[in-house]
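Internal ticket - ligand job 455, uracil:
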Amino acid sequence: MRMYDLIMKKRNGYEHSKEEIRYIIEGFTKGEIPDYQMSAWLMSVYYKGMTGEETLELTNAMADSGDRLDLSRIKGIKVDKHSTGGVGDKTTFIVAPILASLGVPMAKMSGRGLGHTGGTIDKLEAIKGFNVAISEDLFINNVNNIKLSLVGQTGNLAPADKKIYALRDVTATVDSIPLIASSIMSKKLAAGADVIVLDVKCGSGAFMQDEVSAKELARTMVDIGNGAGRKTYGIITDMNEPLGCKVGNALEVYEACEVLKLKNLEKIDYGIKRLLEVSLTLAAYMLMGAKNQSIKTDDFNDKDNKALTYEEARRLCEEALTSGKALDKFAEFVAAQGGDADMIYNPDLLPKAKYIVPVYMEKEGYVASCKTSEVGMVNLILGGGRETKESKIDLAVGIDIRKHIGDFVKGDEVFAYIHADDEGVIEEAKKRLVAAYKLSDERTFPEKIIKGIIE
Ligand code: URA
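stdout (structure tokens):
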């Protein structure tokens, strides 16, 4: 086989065999295929696309390029979730303890933030003492004992993806659905869970800005997951404004704790309602997937052996939340990784910024739209995000948004609060935040938070 011929084959729109895909991925990972040929092949994929079979083989080949996490020492059906990246997305801190409190094991590897999107691992580091780099043994033991552990990505998981992504980043080939889907799913498959729920964000703060491409990405990833023998669901969620009210590392942990403390799910602020809806939808699909797979594999300590409907799973997740069990589980998980669990019960103990400054809009009107990625950029300006992988971040800073799409903002009403440590960046942050929103005399209604489910 010659890489030259394979580039030409894809360039001319033909389908690769499994052997050809393995040849490309293995050759590139070993350094036998040079960057210039791989770049040409990636561009051919960008223009000509890939069939479902090609995309599945590409994903498996990338997952096989390094270690696969061995979760066999964990009892039961393991679940995982993945978000394609948004602003203010703290759902993991709500979903994971809900599931763990219901006895569903979650052994999760998460990433750090880059650019306008935040990272779960950074957010957890806002909790004093929390260790995101515990040993594999402790990771496994914690999942067996308390059903939840969460660490930063370690080991040699899907190294082919790392190398290919670096090339895509500099050759304008990132935004290709088969390449994005295989990149995300290769890491998820290597991370070992049996049930995977994907939160595919859609809108002005997401990779996929329109619903058609978000659905196509979700469909492609769900087909890969199911094709690889993992029960996979894709939930398409709105990212046309930040999720919830708070953006920033400690602020997002704070807001997750507020949700975990809810006793009544009826009378809540609209921003929190959207966050809650995404969290409960993800949690219910994960629970339903785990329970129903466990019946198939007879691998759960199920006494009733009865499949769950979505509605039943949802009700169980709501009860786990309102009973306070999920909050206790979150505190238990934090303590098991060396963190200060008092911060979970009393989030006012989380790191606080020096300055908390109100932001007002320049005119009155209804909030009509938001350029969500710009809100993420405001967090970056404040020091809460990373411009490069090496940047240090300030865990205390961020934005607390008080108005959402469809709300009326009076001239003297606080629109948001900026939390800053560096006085010198406050004015720029305020300006960028105001400019991120459009106000209108006519009321526009927000997009539905759940835009579709792909099974
Ligand atoms: N996230 C990934 O891991 N890979 C992509 O290609 C895009 C987003």
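Auto-summary: The chain has 17 helices and 13 strands. The longest strand covers residues 195-202.
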